[in-house]
Design goal:
There is one protein chain. With about 425 residues, the protein is of the alpha+beta class. The chain has 3 domains: about 5-215, HUPs (Rossmann fold, 3-Layer(aba) Sandwich), CATH 3.40.50; about 225-325, Chorismate Mutase Domain, subunit A, CATH 1.20.59.20; about 325-420, no CATH class. About 40% of the residues lie in helices and about 20% in strands. The chain contains 13 helices and 20 strands. A 6-stranded mixed sheet has the order 3-2-1-4-6-5, sandwiched between helices. A 5-stranded antiparallel sheet has the order 7-8-11-10-9. It has a 5-stranded antiparallel sheet with strand order 12-15-16-17-18, with no helix packed on it. The radius of gyration is 25 Å and the shape is globular. The termini are far apart. The model has no long low-confidence stretch (mean pLDDT about 85).
């Protein structure tokens, strides 16, 4: 498909429902791809009354980075495009520079989007970028998930990340930009062979006779994505059939049902459950070596406890429990009237003021819980659950254990609180 305004607009309407979007941002480095996408998106957003913001991250990795960010800002301002510059403050980085910069860039931009009610972020990855990513991951020994490559649409930190250029070649973008006489910057790091991606780009260029190498790498990505989608579909069937989501936010599966699965499903199941327990699907999968180690021990031992990626895995009396590691749980938060989200796992709705929420600790447990109270969950799982309290009223509430404890024996607090666990969708209502 030729890259022009009409074709690109139709592409967005058909594949990304652009006319239904209300707020859109774009990550703009100043390079030819992102400047091209900014130019096209700006016109389309104006036609559809969509609020449009361009975002540039000054990464401070090169001495010219601030100058380049300001040059991008100057040009976009002349085009009447709303633009902001975000600055990455960091120590000197000596290794894994491009990966760390990419992670920081996404965090800065997604945080900005969340704070400004922007739901959709456009990124200018191209058909050529897909080929480079696939070959990089092959060389690093990735499996099916890795060589599936870059998705057209994903979610990062609750922001929809959209990549509409994945079906357009770099040469098409360059041709369009020259025809339209649009400004862009050349990134000098794109030619520095110390970076793996640049080495791979050069290798593809040498092998890309009649464009077939890039094309076949993209075809490989498409085939791998289809296989991965099958695994994900089957995995969800296994999860729904054999896994239990507890009211206290844990997930459990019997050891017998776990060891009956194919090894590939075991590894994927461990990874999926850990992400589900934390309600965190943004980060990369857990390393395969770690998953193999855990799977092997769960197969061969009767009692075991592991900590991995902020999650505790407990094998107890033939049942495998997964729950969030207490030290990675969000700190104390003041609850406002209305809807609150705490630790990414709980929705708290209240009409009361002067309430706070934090994780239950052993210290709080010993001070406020009646000595004759017992709970049915094994290990320290209870300490991954929340406690709501009011210091001024000496009132403590464990919504998931249905405990309300007032140190001053005052029963006239007139509280209404609803706590919903996002994973289990279990709702706890407190009226006091």
């Amino acid at each position: 498909m030729e890259l022009n305004f009409h074709n690109f607009e139709q592409h967005l309407v058909k594949n990304f429902c652009i006319s239904k979007l209300k707020t859109v941002a774009i990550a703009v480095s100043g390079g030819v791809d992102s400047m091209c996408l900014a130019f096209l998106l700006n016109k389309i957003c104006k036609r559809n009354n969509i609020i449009f913001t361009a975002i540039t991250v000054d990464h401070k990795l090169r001495k010219d980075s601030t100058f380049e960010a300001n040059e991008v800002a100057r040009y976009l301002k002349n085009q009447h495009i709303n633009h902001v510059i975000l600055t990455w403050q960091h120590e000197i980085i000596k290794s894994d520079i491009q990966n760390k910069a990419r992670q920081a860039r996404y965090k800065l931009i997604c945080d900005y989007c969340k704070n400004h009610n922007i739901e959709n972020l456009f990124v200018a990855h191209t058909y050529d970028d897909q080929a480079e990513t696939v070959l990089l991951r092959i060389l690093r020994g990735s499996g099916i998930d890795g060589i599936s490559g870059i998705e057209f649409k994903t979610k990062i930190n609750e922001i929809n990340v959209i990549r509409p250029f994945l079906q357009f070649r770099k040469s098409q973008i360059l041709s369009f930009m020259k025809d339209q006489n649009i400004f862009w910057l050349e990134d000098k790091s794109n030619k520095e062979v110390k970076f793996d991606r640049v080495k791979v780009r050069n290798l593809i260029s040498e092998c890309d006779k009649d464009f077939k190498f890039t094309q076949r790498l993209n075809l490989l990505s498409e085939n791998a994505r289809r296989a991965r989608n099958f695994f994900e579909s089957y995995l969800k069937e296994i999860f729904e059939k054999y896994c239990t989501i507890g009211d206290l936010g844990f997930i459990s599966i019997s050891k017998t049902n776990f060891i009956d699965q194919h090894e590939e499903i075991k590894l994927r199941l461990i990874n999926y459950i850990i992400k589900s327990v934390k309600n965190d699907f943004n980060h990369y999968p857990i390393r395969i070596e770690q998953l193999k180690y855990i799977s092997g021990n769960l197969n061969n031992l009767d009692q075991q406890k592991f900590t991995i990626n902020g999650c505790i895995i407990l094998l107890n009396q033939g049942v495998i429990y997964f729950y969030k590691e207490p030290k990675f749980i969000e700190s104390t938060k003041i609850l406002k009237k209305g809807k609150n989200i705490w630790d990414g796992r709980y929705i708290i709705e209240t009409d009361s003021e002067n309430l706070e929420i934090c994780k239950l600790t052993k210290d709080k447990w010993s001070k406020i819980i009646p000595k004759n109270y017992t709970h049915s969950v094994p290990g320290d799982m209870i300490f991954s659950t929340p406690i709501i309290f009011s210091k001024s009223k000496n009132l403590y509430i464990l919504p998931l254990s249905n405990i309300i404890y007032s140190l001053n024996n005052n029963n006239s607090h007139n509280l209404q609180i609803t706590v919903t666990h996002i994973l289990s969708e279990t709702c706890f209502e407190i009226n006091y």
